[in-house]
Structures are given as C-alpha cells and as structure tokens.
Amino acid sequence: DIQMTQSPSSLSASVGNRVTITCRASQSIKNHLNWYQQKPGAAPRLLIYAASSLQSGVPSRFSGSGFGSDFTLTISGLQPEDFATYYCQQSYLNPPITFGQGTRLDIE
Amino acid sequence: EVQLVQSGPEVKKVGTTVKISCRVSGYNFMGHYIYWVRQVPGKGLEWMGLIDPEDDETDYAQKFQGRITITADTSIDTAYMELTSLKSDDTAVFYCVKVQTDGSGRGSWLETWGQGTRVTVST
Asked: Cα B69 from chain centroid?
C-alpha cells in the first residue's frame, strides 16, 4: 500500500492568513492526489482532485499543487469556516486508496 | 442534486453483525463505483471496500477480508455494507461515497459522501 504522510499534524492560524499543508506519498503517484475538508460532526467534502483541479462550488482561495510524491494544499485568505481537518488521499494504486493522517487547522 | 442517504445509527453487541444501507439519487447508480470508508472516533479515514453496481464487482481492504460484504440493489439504487463479528474497536462512523473517475484507470476521487452512519459496539 502507498503511505501518505501529512505535515503538520496540526497548526494554528488567523483569519486572513495564508496556510500551506503538505502531503508526501511513499512512492510516485503522479497527479493522483485529492484533498478533503472535514468539519466536526460532518462528512468529508472534496476540495481538490487530480492534485490541482478545484471541485465545483469550492472557493477559489483553495488551491493544490504538486506531482510525483510531494503535494501542497494552500488556503489563501483564511475564512472562519475554513477551520477544520484536512486529508489528502491517493488513487494511483487503487485499491486500496489511502489517506493521510489529517491536518487539524485551528484558530489562533 | 446528487445525494447519498444512509441508514440510521446502530448499537450492536460484540460478535454480532451490522448492515448499513446507502440510497443514492440524482445520478446513474450503475455508472459509478461506491466506496465505503470508516472513521473511528477522533481518528482518520480508512477505506474498507468498493462495489461496481454495474456488475457487482467488489474489492475489500485486507484488514476487513472475511468480515465485510458489500452489495448493491440496482432496482432501488441502494448499496449495502455488512460487517460481521463486530468488535468494540469497530465503533465508528461509516460513510458510503460516490466515486468519480477520470477514465485513465488511475485517477479517481471521492466526489459525494453520505451523511455517515454511527455504529456503537458494546460488550
């Protein structure tokens, strides 16, 4: 199975800040990397697919980049509703798909 | 609007079986894989298995092999996940998810999620 490692595991930031979350795969996955947001008590929500494509309805302050084994999710201009946990997920070797352990984003 | 509506919360005893349903609407049920994902309280996301409703092809995570069965009833656009021999550490929220692919055989993403079904397993 491909291991996905996110960093940091948690971070604090203020409204208006720019934040970056990193996801590293244990082998090359080309661009087969997706990002999800999960708020407490809710199901995850797809943000970014294929490393950099914005899912319909997702604000443009969210962006993704990367190829191979290193990827980033950037949120430019944090909004109060962005404080949540974020997960990356690979689909290159599927099944099984695998997720990162999650990054919790808290209000500073 | 695409929707996946799951059955309600369950409380089960250790050693018993749970079966969760996932009724879809708003898209062609046979045109997309359904995945099941588990989330233990306070933990991350874990893929359990999949079904292709078009031909009932399934695949399961090794961790759940022998305990999990995923089925689909195309007459009512509903998928099911059955987990047997429940243990206390199966206490979790279970999600069904509609999968979208890019046609390449590699690219896929979990596009729409059900609301989740909480299963509590007690002794």
From this structure: 10
Contact check, Cβ <8 Å, A43/B100: no
**Segments of chain A assigned E as strands:** 4-7, 10-13, 18-25, 33-38, 45-49, 53-54, 62-67, 70-76, 85-90, 98-99, 103-107
Nearest to B99 by CA among B48, B34, B4: B34
Measured distance CA(B67)–CA(B4) in Å, rounded:
24
Nearest to A32 among B46, B50, B106 (CB): B106
Tokens 């950099």 found at: A52
Q: Is pLDDT above 90 for B13?
A: yes
**How many Cα atoms within 13 Å fall on the side-chain side of residue B104?**
13
Q: Which residue of A has its CA nearest to B116?
A: A43
Q: Return the closest-CA partner of residue A60 out of A72, A47, A45.
A: A47
The stretch A91-105 carries a mean pLDDT of: 95
What would the pLDDT profile of B33-92 be if each residue is shown by its tens digit?
999 999 999 999 999 999 999 999 999 999 999 999 999 999 999 999 999 999 999 999
Q: How many CB atoms lie within 10 A of CB A88?
A: 29
pLDDT averaged over chain A?
97
Residue B51 φ/ψ, nearest 5 degrees: -140, 140
- What pLDDT score does B48 carry? 98
Euclidean distance between CA atoms A103 and A37, whole angstroms: 10
